[in-house]
Design brief:
182 residues, mainly beta, ten-stranded antiparallel β-barrel, 13% helix, globular
């Protein structure tokens, strides 16, 4: 009887652990408006304002981003370039240039010099979810950290972004951004 009870408790614990680790699916947002069209929103100039908070919620960095973006069609696929210029509250600057490729409606891959492999993006309704590994420099060392990045179009000009950063499944912090399309 003790063995059965132990297995039962273990099974319940594992089930609760799996449920607590689940995250929303992009398909949940399929009927949400306004509908996000990446090639429409990320076309032209966008200003972004953000913070990085550690896992305790303390703001560690504030930053602004100027994004210049455009799209073309290559081999029948939409290809976007997002040229991002970051400026942090401590005066440091950073540059990232994304190449986004629409693989099929609602499915994208993204590439940038500091992204390890391809970022995987899924879009539905007003929401976009990116998952990727970023090579993050910290005090002279490069750490590969995972991002689970959610973007939500609020109005045709405003998008909010919330990205959780983790390593080995342990949450390190969160990036929060607001985008404004000029």
């Amino acid at each position: 009887m003790k063995s059965f009870f132990t297995r039962f408790i273990f099974t319940v614990f594992c089930g609760l652990l799996l449920v607590s680790c689940s995250s929303p699916q992009v398909s949940q947002y399929a009927s949400e408006k306004p509908t996000l069209d990446l090639s429409e929103y990320f076309s032209g100039t966008i200003d972004a304002y953000g913070i990085f908070t550690d896992r305790s919620g303390e703001v560690k960095k504030r930053f602004t981003v100027l994004i210049k973006s455009n799209w073309t069609v290559v081999d029948g696929k939409k290809v976007g370039t997002l040229d991002e210029s970051f400026e942090y509250s401590d005066g440091t600057k950073q540059k990232r240039i994304w190449t986004l490729i629409e693989q099929s409606p609602g499915n994208y891959i993204g590439r940038a010099d500091d992204v390890v492999g391809d970022a995987q993006g899924q879009l539905a309704g007003n929401a976009l979810n990116w998952t990727y590994t970023l090579a993050l420099p910290v005090d002279g060392t490069i750490y590969h950290v995972q991002f689970n990045d959610w973007m939500y179009l609020v109005t045709p000009k405003v998008m909010l972004n919330k990205a959780k950063m983790s390593k080995f499944g342990i949450e390190l912090g969160e990036v929060t951004l607001s985008f404004y399309k000029r």
